[in-house]
Amino acid sequence: MAHFENVNNIKFEGAGSTNPLAFKFYNPDEVVGGKRMEDILRFGVAYWHTFVADGTDPFGAATMNRTWDRFSGMDLAKARVEAAFEFFEKLGVPFFCFHDVDVAPEGDTLRETYKNIDEITGMIKDYMSTSKTKLLWNTANMFSNQRYVHGAATSCNADVFAYSAAKVKKGLEVAKDLGAENYVFWGGREGYETLLNTDMKFEQDNLGRFFHMAVDYAKEIGYDGQFLIEPKPKEPTSHQYDFDVATGLAFLHAYDLTNDFKFNIEANHATLAGHTFEHEIRTARMHGMLGSLDANQGHPLLGWDTDEFPTDLYATTLAMYEVLKNGGIGKGGLNFDSKVRRGSFEQNDLFHAHIAGMDSFAVGLKVAQRLIDDKVFENIIEKRYASYNEGIGKKIVTGATNFKELEAYALENDQITNQSGQLEIIKATINQYLLTTFAK
């Protein structure tokens, strides 16, 4: 059955369009920096927010009535697959992502859960055979069920560790079968509420063991997708072990996993960690660890993970600058880990939201490319650190000096003159590029 029969394929109509079901700035075939826009941005749809979320929040019941909600159990799962691929085709996205329980309900036993997964992923594979939309990544939900009350791979209960391993083993088999380009680990409950009853070293050791087992099994079955860790500082635990990219990187180094993992970075998670999206992307990029991006934004007045669709053009520009400086996103993409607001309960709002997000990153891409072409930031940074290109500065960076020589230099050159950082000029310049990139 059709679920979006009143929506045609979404087309690019340009900035002057007033059609809410058309792209204003995202033109998949437009070439930016020598590549097609679609090939750079690699947009993906999040199955959980788009086809599973119902608007429930801690203070209210569901608000979103979907055409597939008339079904239940496996019939509901099948209807969601039908709706999903209709949505993918009409939106024209190249990728989607899912947790195992998003696509198939858990059964009363693990064997029954496996059976459900096999049936639904078989259906997904059939749809994928005639669709341009491929699987960017899949993952296992190891945080919703009450069995994960104390964590999954970091649980104090060895039976939970074993169950979690079984879930990821199945997930890797699904990833190989469906051709997933990545496999994601988000440690929803891999952390602690209090140190008063927690052996943090033991739990992190177990998490390291778990990841090594996953790497070994992927090699055993011939799955060559990229492994990704998705950092988040809190929620639902008060302190999660993958707090941010820097913390995650330290963990990967400690457990000899840097050759096997990169990072899937989410904008709203960066905010919760006290960082900007571009900070987290830069941290991963400078260490060669940028894997993929979850595109959303948080609400500036709310202190939790609101997962709003991205519309902040300043943020999308700076994020795409980092992606372009990275040479692209590789096997990763821009997955909209975003949900429509609880009051946006009409089914077509799903299209409106994705269009807004895709247009916002298309703007960011084009502005970022202009900034790179004109070497705006490069020129600023080159000037700012010019003192290290000659004299004592050059000796410092080449390792040709020491404290004694530096002291002698400082004694003769203690009247120091600094230059302005000119941050206001820089921000005004970004605004200028934002406002003029699409000017006629």
Describe this structure in words.
With 440 residues, the chain is an alpha/beta fold. Helix content is 46%, strand content 11%. An 8-stranded parallel β-barrel has the order 5-6-7-8-10-12-13-14, surrounded by 4 helices. Strands 1-2 form a two-stranded parallel ribbon. Strand 3 and strand 4 (35-36) form a beta hairpin. Helix 5 (110-128) runs parallel beside helix 6 (158-178). The two termini are 44 Å apart.
The largest β sheet comes out as: 8 strands, parallel, barrel
Helix tally equals 16
Overall pLDDT confidence: 97
Please provide the ordered H/E string of secondary-structure elements: EEEEHEHHEHHEHEEHEEHEHHEHEHHHHH
Instruction: Work out the number of β strands.
Output: 14
Strand order of the largest sheet: 5-6-7-8-10-12-13-14
- β content, as a range? 5-15%
**CA distance, first residue to last residue:** 44 Å
Radius of gyration: 24 Å
Shape: globular
Helix content: 40-55%
Query: Which structural class do you get from the secondary structure elements?
Result: alpha/beta
Uncertain residue ranges: none
